[in-house]
Structure formats: structure tokens, C-alpha cells
Specification:
The chain has 157 residues and is mainly β. The chain has one helix at residues 2-23; strands at 25-34, 39-48, 51-61, 72-79, 85-90, 93-98, 109-114, 118-121, 140-143, 151-153. It has one helix and ten strands; from the N terminus they run αββββββββββ. The longest helix is centred in the N-terminal third of the chain and has 22 residues, at 2-23.
């Protein structure tokens, strides 16, 4: 009986630790649709104790072949535990560099700044290797503190 109570107590403590860890994470997310450019998508940034630990961006562009064709997509999914990215901090921003950029002569990084809103700067991110033909990453995405619609800055048409 004593062994059973010890195991039960250990199980309860383990569960409570898992719940506390889950509560320490904050996920900021938003979605967008730009009908004039036939683009849509979403962005998510996961924070743990105020630090960026994961960035996910999905962007979809209408297929050029017409209605019914699958969209072209661009995707970024990076976390601090990845081995294919290098995470650094610079003047209050988190920089996530691609460890194997498609074009090694050009920068390939995402800059995430946390404030009231979350800013994802993609202006130095290579679309090549992340996007299908006819698609590109936005220049920037802002996840607002209030609301679920992203503010998006697309590239020049």
C-alpha cells in the first residue's frame, strides 16, 4: 500500500509539473487573406517565459492554372531545438538563420521582435527552397496583441 501511495504521489507531481510547463508557453497567432493578390495564410509564434521558442508561417498563393488547382505554398517551421537553424539574440530581437540556405551568398534569416505585438520580419528570408513556383514569402507579418487578423506586407507586385 505504501508503494502504491508513493507511486500515486509521484504521478500527481509529474502531471502537475507538465501542466505548469504547458501554462508557461504563450502562443501568439493570426491569419490573413489578401484577395487582391490571391494570398492567404497564418503565423504562429510560441513564447516560453517571454522568449521565442518556435516560429511557424504558412502562406498560400492561388495556382496560376485556374480554379480548382492546388495552391502554391511557402512554409517556415523552426524551433530552438532544430539542428538546421541557428538562433541568436540581437538588440531585443530573435534572429533565426537557416543553417543551409539555398543561396549561401545571400542572408537567409527570420527576425522576430516581441513587444505589444509580435513582428516577424521576413525581408532577409530566401523564398527559394521554401516556396512553390509562383509563391513568395511576405516581407513582414505582424501578429497583433488584440484580434486574430495579421497585418501583412507583401512584396512588390
Amino acid at each position: 500500500m505504501e508503494h502504491f501511495l508513493s507511486c500515486a504521489a509521484l504521478l500527481v507531481l509529474t502531471l502537475l509539473a507538465g501542466v505548469a510547463h504547458a501554462e508557461e508557453q504563450d502562443i501568439r497567432a493570426c491569419g490573413f487573406e489578401v484577395k487582391a493578390r490571391c494570398a492567404s495564410g497564418d503565423a504562429r509564434v510560441t513564447l516560453a517565459h517571454g522568449d521565442v521558442v518556435r516560429v511557424e508561417v504558412d502562406v498560400y498563393w492561388c495556382a496560376l492554372q485556374g480554379r480548382g488547382a492546388p495552391p502554391f505554398a511557402c512554409m517556415i517551421d523552426s524551433s530552438r531545438t532544430d539542428t538546421d537553424s541557428v538562433w541568436t539574440e540581437d538588440a531585443g530581437a530573435t534572429l533565426i538563420a537557416n543553417g543551409s540556405p539555398r543561396n549561401p551568398d545571400q542572408p537567409d534569416r527570420v527576425k522576430v521582435t516581441i513587444g505589444r505585438d509580435v513582428s516577424i520580419d521576413l525581408s532577409e528570408t530566401q523564398s527559394l527552397g521554401r516556396c512553390g513556383a509562383g509563391a513568395e514569402l511576405p516581407r513582414a507579418i505582424v501578429i497583433p496583441a488584440q484580434g486574430s487578423a495579421c497585418r501583412v506586407r507583401l512584396g512588390v507586385p
